[in-house]
Design a protein that fits this description.
homodimer; alpha/beta; 214 residues; Rossmann fold
């Protein structure tokens, strides 16, 4: 296992170096199955598609359904099928980077395989990770999956429109999150109603500026 | 990987043999994080606790929160922390079986780690697997995670009370599920409202009879 992670890290460092040279920010988006990653990417394409040049890598076990959903935005998308694998790794990312014109991109979103565990262990060479969790999953996720919430640069709490119909307790969620990662910004959003998305888009735009100026 | 799976299979066969001898049915419950596995076990303890002798193995990455929730039912529970591992395996199950009085059990529920992928690959020596999915996760899960839906003996579609507030399409879900596994029984349930639980409990009781008579 250590060997696998070491080799992954070497390749991730290579990917990160290449993306820096090309001024491309890579965002590694991690969540459970069905937390709303693809819907978030739809909202990003609709709202930021004319402000920044976006590319997407879609990680999936076996289908290209998420990729199909995003085709309508006319942006470069590459689907990686892991053939049963439960996470992406830096080697698979490195291989598909050739399929993008990196000179024509500002930001490359990676939709990781739906899984809160292994994707947190594998550096893809991203600029930063974003953890996404849906209110319907319950308020206990930060404590149960601490590695992801420690590794991420921001947390998106999606499906806030469902809170009235669930036993999700926002103050318990925040209390647990702060214990794991005291400084992490939390965005409460609904990708269906649009609530909270403006603040998240602003933060994302700032990060892009910061990372490109470094 | 093949080596790991082969060794897992050998130990799973041993576990299965032991449980047969003891007339204990083991149910391996698999879902995404937050689909409702622990709440289902609460409903099972409340409704079936006086009809069958229940034991529970709680698989979790790092905490014993789910185990704590179930303590009130006064049934034997053992928590396995995988220390970051994304699934249980037959070796960890075999080790904790000694902690149960198997002669005093009818059924042993295993709450696997929240993950739709790797748990489907690892036989624990269970009598059968049950796949659980929440309506809030979307209707595309059978096609996206086919192995689990192929392996399972039943599917529980939980959180049907949330359908009116989501874009979940029941007929698409069923259509995809039938393509993967035409014969599999589907139970539409809500562990919070109680809808559909009676049918699932009846099916479960029948399975216990069938497995013990074999």
């Amino acid at each position: 296992m250590k060997n696998i992670l070491d080799r992954n890290q070497d390749k991730a460092d290579e990917v990160r170096k290449l993306l820096r040279e090309k001024n491309v920010v890579m965002v590694n988006l991690i969540s459970s199955p069905g937390a709303g990653k693809t819907t978030l990417l739809e909202r990003i394409c609709e709202n930021l598609g004319n402000k920044m040049k976006i590319g997407i890598i879609e990680g999936d076990i076996t289908t290209d359904r998420d990729g199909q959903r995003l085709k309508k935005y006319n942006i470069p998308i590459v689907v990686i099928n892991t053939e049963g694998g439960c996470h992406l790794d830096s080697h698979s990312i490195s291989k598909v980077l050739d399929l993008f014109d990196l000179n024509a991109l500002d930001v490359l979103f990676v939709e990781n395989v739906g899984n809160l565990i292994c994707p947190a262990h594998f550096d893809l060479g991203e600029s930063f990770k974003v953890a996404m969790v849906s209110t319907a999953e319950g308020d206990d996720k930060p404590e149960k999956y601490p590695m992801l919430f420690r590794e991420a640069k921001a947390v998106l709490l999606n499906k806030t429109d469902l809170i009235p119909y669930t036993n999700f307790n926002l103050s318990n969620f925040k209390k647990d999150l702060i214990k794991i990662n005291a400084q992490i910004p939390l965005f409460e959003i609904s990708c269906t109603s649009g609530d909270g998305l403006r603040e998240w888009f602003e933060w994302l735009s700032e990060q892009l500026d910061i990372f490109i100026k470094i």
